[in-house]
Amino acid sequence: MMLNHLGKQTLVFPSRPSVLSYASVVGPKEGEGPLGNFFDEIVPDDLMGQDSFEKAELKMLEDACDRTLSKAKKLACDVDVYLGGDLLNQIVSSAYAARGLGIPYLGVYGACSSMAQAMLLGAVLVDGGYADTALCSAVSHFSTAERQYRFPLELGSQRPPSSQWTVTGAGAVLLGCEKGLPVGITHATIGSVWDMGQKDINNMGAAMAPAAHETLKAHLLDTGRDVTDYDLIVSGDLGKVGSSILRELCEREGLYLGARYIDCGCEIFGDDQGVFSGGSGAGCSAVTLCGWLFSRLLSGDLRRILFMPTGALMSVTTSQQGESIPGIAHAVTLEVIP
Length: 338
Known about the structure:
Layout lengths: L4 E2 L3 E3 L5 E9 L1 H4 L9 E2 L10 H19 L9 E5 L6 H10 L3 E3 L6 H14 L5 E8 L1 H8 L15 E2 L2 E8 L6 E7 L14 H20 L8 E4 L3 H14 L8 E3 H4 L11 E2 L1 H18 L4 E5 L1 E3 L3 H5 L6 E3 L1 E6 L2
Parallel strand pairs: 3-4, 5-6, 5-7, 8-13, 11-12, 11-14
Antiparallel strand pairs: 1-2, 2-10, 3-9, 7-9, 10-17, 14-17, 15-16
């Protein structure tokens, strides 16, 4: 019998696992954007003194995890489980970070939805009494993602208006059963995979928007809530194209998001930064949450948000074989806990 389950897809966490600490580390372009003041660290260059962008991505993730543990006044040996995800083949950035941390590790892959997936599973472990503490993270890097999924940077390929800019950044959150910061996870909705036949790797927003629409509908149906029950509903990286599609899909069914809806990919960069449709990548939602959004929750500006990153579950192989792009979205409810 499922005790802590609402409807078909939503979990409820009676103990409301606490956010003990969080941290974000971003690249220079992200630091120049409108959210620059909210990040813990802005690195001076994308290589971070390393000899490859992949090693720089790992260093960024390690720094975010170390900062998160330091803020909570904990050592790695104090943490029961580490859940991490990224975009590189076999999620190697997270695996190599786990190697250094020495914490029991569960690698997660939800593409750009990985941060929500890690937090969802971390909350399950803490609320279920299987862990006292869970470190959750996600990371991406513009240069590693471009040469894995698209074209070598040296090629200087022209980008269409629908394309998005992969965020160079890492975010980490430490969840726990003890009382921490006055923010906790109360619900989570597990997404299902949706594929509407989109094949353009330069239009990920269109591929992922239907999944965000279905997860949002499922969450509201399962919980009996309405859009107005949230101060913000936050998608992860739909960008300008995908977020407009999400609004249209919702409005067709009489669901009007209005000013209560934002997208991290539309918020993290300014219009003058040449990112076309906006930001993307596993790090996009992770650093926006672990910077601007948590700051707003802690200041009292927000009291309840639905954090709903999306992911495109494709690979270089499937793209080369002419496959369409499946999308997924997971949602986590974060609330101010008195």
